[in-house]
Structure formats: C-alpha cells, structure tokens
Design goal:
homodimer; 401 residues; eight-stranded mixed beta sheet; 15 helices; 14 strands; 32% helix
C-alpha cells in the first residue's frame, strides 16, 4: 500500500460515493469446462463489465490463499502482510463478540482427555452446539474472573468457543496449548516474550479451574486454546482515506472486520434483497459502502457448484438498483476465490470490475475470470483497489508538485 | 518475495511433485520477423502452453538484465535484490569448486605487465587453457598457504582462474585489483571495511608471491583479482518451502547454484536426453526438480539464431516424457532472455507456462514471447513463480484466519 503519510496528504473529502460490492469467494475453477461465473446467467453483471474497466487482483501475493481477514483488509486498503488479525480476534468477530482495545482473546476447542490427561479427541467428538452452550454457561458461572482479570466465554458452533480476558496489561505473545495431534498432552501455556509472563499465569490458572469444572463432562472434559490475540491497531478509513464508510453485511465476522477499520455497521437483515434495501435507505449518510455477499463462499466451501451459481444469479438482479443510485464508483470483486472444485479458499486471483464515469474502459464484456484477465487494469495487488476507487471518485489530489 | 517467516508458516510437506524446466536464455528477439521460439517447430511445448496458464516474468525488475545468479535465484524463490552472489563465488561454482562457509574466493585473470608493472594486456593475450592449467599448478605448488590461510588455485578457460582462501576470519570487503583498463598499474589491495584489513594483508602477500613466481612467464606475468566474495547465507529450500529438491543440470555453475539453496545435485550426463533419463530414474526420491537446459543460452551468446532454434526443437521431443510422469505442476520458462540478435543476456521478460490440474487455463496456445504476454498470469516478478508452483501443488496453507 501507499505509505499512510502519503495517503493522508493526498486524499480529500468530497460528496462523491463509492460502492464496493464484495462477492465472497466468487472466483472459481472450471467444472465441466466452465467456472461458476461462466456458468451463471448474469446479464446485468456482464453489462456492468462491458461498461467498466476490468482486471484481476491478488489478495496477498501470487500463490497465497488468504483467510477472510487478509482478503478483506486488502480490499479495504490495508496491506494484509503489514496488518495481521489473529485467529482469536477473527473468531471473536465471527460470533459477534465486540472487543475492546487490550482485550485478549483465544479460540477454544472442547476436547477429550484420557485419565492421564492425554488428548484423545481434539474436538470432543464434535459435541452438539447446544451442549457447547451449556458448558460455556457453566464455565462462565464458575470462572467469572481470574486474579482481577474478567473472563468471558462464548460458544461458537459444535466444539468451538471463544474466551476473552479483560483487564490491564494483557499480552498476546503466548503459544497455543493445542498440541495439534491426538495422543499428546496439551502444550503448556508458554509466553514467547517476557512481557507476557503475567498473562501466561492468568491463562494457566484459567485452564486449571476449567479442567476442574469439566472433569465429569466427558467427552468434553478438556479445553485447548489457540490464536491468542488482541485487536490490531488499525488506523481508521476516516483517518487515512477521509471516508465516512458503512458496512452492509449479514454475517458477524464481516461486520467485525468492518468495525476494525472504522466502518459504521448498518442493519442489513439476512438476505441480498435486505442488504440492497439497507444500501438505498442509508445512501445519503455515507460516501463509502462495503456490501458483502456471503453465500457464494459458503456454497464454494461445500463444493456446491450450482448453489454458488444460483447466488451469483440472484445477486445479478440487484445490479440495476445499484446503477440507479448512480454512485461515482462501483467496484465488484471477491476477497479471494473459493472454487467449488477445491471446497475451500484458493490462491487464484479475483475478477475485478471498476465502473466510473472517470475511468477508461476496455473490451471486456463479461464478468468472468478469463475475461477480466484480459482487462486493461491487468493483474494487481488487491490493496491497490482502494486508491483506484478513490481516484475514480476524484477523492485524491496530485502527489508531488 | 513473501517474508520468510510467512513462508515457513504456510508451506506444508506433501507428496505432490513439481518440475521446473529452465530453458536458459530462451526468450529472444525477432530476426527476419520471428523470435527463436516463434521460428522453432515445437508442437509439444505449444500443446503444453494450450493446456496451461501462461504469463511473462521479470527476473529482477523491468529493464534489468540479470546474470545467471540472480536469474536462477529468482526462480528458486529468493529475491535476487536481497540475496546477492558475488562474482568470485559464481566463478568458483562455474568451475565446480565446492565452497565452505567462510571461504573467500576471487575471480582471477592472467595478465601482461611491462617492466614497470603497468598492465598492457588484461587477458595475457588470452593464453590457451592448457597454459593456464600449467601456471595454476605452478602457483599452487609454490604458494600452498599464506600466514596460516590455505590457498587453492584452479584454472578456468583461457586466462581465467579462481583463487580460494581457506581459514578463519576472512572478510570479502576488498576492492578489485583489476584496473579495468590497460595502461595502468593493478589497483592496490584495499579493504572497504576495517574488519577486512587482515584479509587484505593476506591477499597482498599472495599477490607479491604470485608475481615473483610468474615473473618469467611473459605474457602471463601478472594476475588481476576481482569479485572477492563468500558464500551467501541462503536459507535452504527445505527450510522455507519444505521441499526435497533435486537439480538436473549439465554445467557446474548451475549445479553450484542449486547446491547453494540446498538441492541435491543428480548425475545428469551432458545431453538433454540424459537429463530426462535422470529425471525418470530419480522421480520417486524428490518432490521438486529443477531441470536446466543450457545450450539455448550458449547459442544465444554466440549470436547463433538457428543453433538456439534447434535446441528448442530437440528439447520439445522430451515434453511427452515429462507429461507421462504426471507431476502436479510443470513450469517451463527461462532464467533470462538471450536473444541471438543481442549476443548476450537481455532484460526482456521470460515466457512462462504453469501446467497443473489445480490451475485455471487461458487461451494461449503457443509457447512464445508474444503469446505468453497475453496469458492470464499477466506479467509478474520471477520470484513469485515459486509461490505459484507451491500453490498449484497444494503445498501452501491459508494465510491468516
């Protein structure tokens, strides 16, 4: 990314508006000769591509498969190699936990230990989410705090939970206790920096108490912690880009990521239709909208090619509404690819559309991976998308005399 | 390149295999309207391009002509601007000298000095290689060591040789003694850092003795040294990429470069046929193969357009053998261009083919500079080739949560 001092110097506040439409994991791989985008009937997205300048983005680096954190940070204009988001923080955001600066969070697993304390199942047989909730309530009741540090325990799905420590002087430089393989004891709580030794004591004491509470709750008689982390210190989008940004998303994790960079999170319901309604209703109040479509990624992860195609086709119907609002810039892209063929995130670059009266166009006339690969924007790091959008919205002044 | 800590974190050991076929200097410039690649009849390489995703690589930076060191380091995944290989080291590798950590090497020239010690021919009339060998044996016999530092002198071709100093505390920060122009005295041995002053004394003493030994061997009565250097500290490919890599090459320099990054150098004979036989015979023992074809570069350097074309056509016949082995990833590219028209290395980017069942394809159907320039990989730094190959071989995990 451009150095922050340069960004602060050249960005300007204007009334022009930008809509960044992120279709999660939209890029794919061919099944029967066509990718999900090639198989979908999506006349409005294709028409938008025809009227735009197109390209391909690498979220982190060629060949690197990004998690959701790096994938989004890049699109928000933050170098994902510079600004890391810990696993604990991301999990906390994913279950809608609001974090304060200095809070320490870790991702937890319920696990099964044998009488000697050796882990025989790292996921406690994937206990039902209902059981997980009960156990989290039990732990919360029994361990409200440790040595003056407040403890919060919140369930995720199946065997997953998040533990949050709230207090002064916490330090995340602590190794995972998850041994990663069955047949081993949990790893001891080990600080990797001397400043984290007091925090390590707190975590150790928490684990001792938790194991005492859980001892009769076989198969969930142990817990494993990993991804100790704290909120990263991210300068806000208002500060560096002079934007007043809003987030329209249906899943907690993306709302949490948006909050990290200073977006206001709007009420957006749970469907694409409701998300576009939220865009219309709040259109006057902001100059940057991040609109997130989740289901493409979910179907990709499930290996459901046609499910993913359907979501793209559903989304396509809302593109005319977007054009009616007439923002100065519309960008349509993915945060990473999720080919149904690979059933997971992948490293393949994302098709990218930049629509603006202030931009050149090219001869790309379809929103597909192969068509965008021939676009006039070429292949570029996703982190550059933000300055391209700001430029097309005439929100950047000349650099240098 | 990606930071090494990131690479170490996300790369994983898997049984999948990668073959990197480097056709040295393969990129060219048109002579009579066609480049060497365009003039060659190479149906198998073109068919491979058709089934692959293609692009162009810049070895170091757009416009920069790389030597063999930077050209290869980039392809091996090491940023050539970060990891330098000194001329002395490269020459030593080129004559098959095996270096230890801390050894100091320099490239030497036999030269002609007049009675006042002024250099009148920097190459001693390009003495025959046989004469060179005799003189090196003589020097070796007369100067086995200097002040406890062991000396090794080995001939190259014509007037070229390599001198190696072996001992404790050697430091390469010494200026060349080669004055670069005739009509001047050799430059004095000058350390550029105080820590190199003891080493400079050793080199001075060596030169005094050598000139005494050579004084009656006109025209080779002087020597000039340049490129003082030591083995760079390169983390191994095993360490950062978790690969078990092998090198199949016929020239010492490329074997030496491969050893620098931790490859096992296989017996590979002297022909392309023998190289592919070595690949087949050792296929089960490694998960990464670097196969180097030298003659394209040699003919390019000679300005022999059709000689270079012929090598490409010969190589083409072995592509089906490569496909039969069915590695997860095949990459075909050059380390730099060597257009016969320019009779030397050039800055022109390299055509690049990435073949893998896990990759997208594009509509490139020929392995040529112009065709690959339209490939969906676009134009990218050669150092990114490694992460692209690892990704396509499914040897990288997700970055970030």
């Amino acid at each position: 990314m451009l150095p922050i001092e340069v960004l602060k110097e050249i960005t300007v506040k204007t009334p022009s508006k930008i809509v960044l439409l992120v279709i999660d994991g939209v890029g794919g791989l061919p099944v029967g000769g066509k990718t999900e985008l090639e198989a979908a009937h999506k006349p409005h997205l294709d028409e938008l591509a025809r009227r735009s300048i197109c390209g391909l983005t690498d979220p982190v680096y060629p060949g690197v498969t990004p998690g959701s954190g790096p994938g989004h940070l890049g699109l928000f204009g933050y170098d994902p190699l510079k600004y890391g988001i810990g696993r604990g923080v991301l999990e906390a955001l994913g279950i809608g936990m609001e974090l304060g600066a200095g809070d320490l969070v870790a991702r937890g697993n319920y696990a099964t230990a044998d009488p000697k304390g050796i882990i025989v199942d790292r996921r406690a047989g994937r206990i039902p989410t209902e059981k997980n909730k009960e156990l989290c309530e039990l732990l919360q009741r029994e361990i409200p705090e440790i040595e003056g540090i407040r403890v919060e325990i919140r369930p995720g799905k199946e065997h997953r939970f998040v533990v949050r420590f709230i207090g002064e002087g916490l330090d995340a430089r602590i190794e995972d206790t998850d041994p990663q393989k069955e047949g081993r004891h949990p790893r001891p709580v080990t600080p990797t920096h001397p400043d984290a030794s007091r925090t390590a004591e707190v975590v150790r004491a928490f684990l001792v108490k938790a194991h005492r509470v859980l001892k009769d709750y076989h198969p969930a008689n142990a817990i494993l912690l990993r991804g100790f982390s704290q909120l990263p210190a991210l300068p806000s989008m208002g500060e560096i880009f002079k934007l007043t940004p809003a987030c329209i998303a249906t899943y907690p994790m993306y709302k949490g990521l948006a909050r990290l960079v200073g977006m206001e999170v709007l009420e957006a319901g749970s469907t694409i239709e409701e998300e576009f309604a939220a865009l219309r209703e709040n259109y006057d109040r902001f100059d940057f909208f991040y609109l997130h479509v989740k289901q493409t990624d979910s179907f990709g992860e499930d290996g459901n090619f046609w499910g993913k195609v359907k979501v793209i086709e559903e989304l396509d119907q809302y593109i005319p509404q977007l054009l009616e609002l007439a923002p100065e810039v519309i960008t349509v892209t993915g945060d990473h690819s999720t080919p149904a063929l690979l059933r997971g995130h992948s490293w393949h670059p994302n098709p990218f559309i930049l629509y603006s009266p202030n931009e050149r166009t090219d001869d790309v006339d379809r929103f597909t991976e192969a068509a965008c690969a021939k676009g006039a924007l070429g292949r570029f790091p996703a982190v550059a998308a933000m300055t391209l959008m700001l430029a097309a919205a005439l929100k950047m002044e000349k650099f240098g005399a």
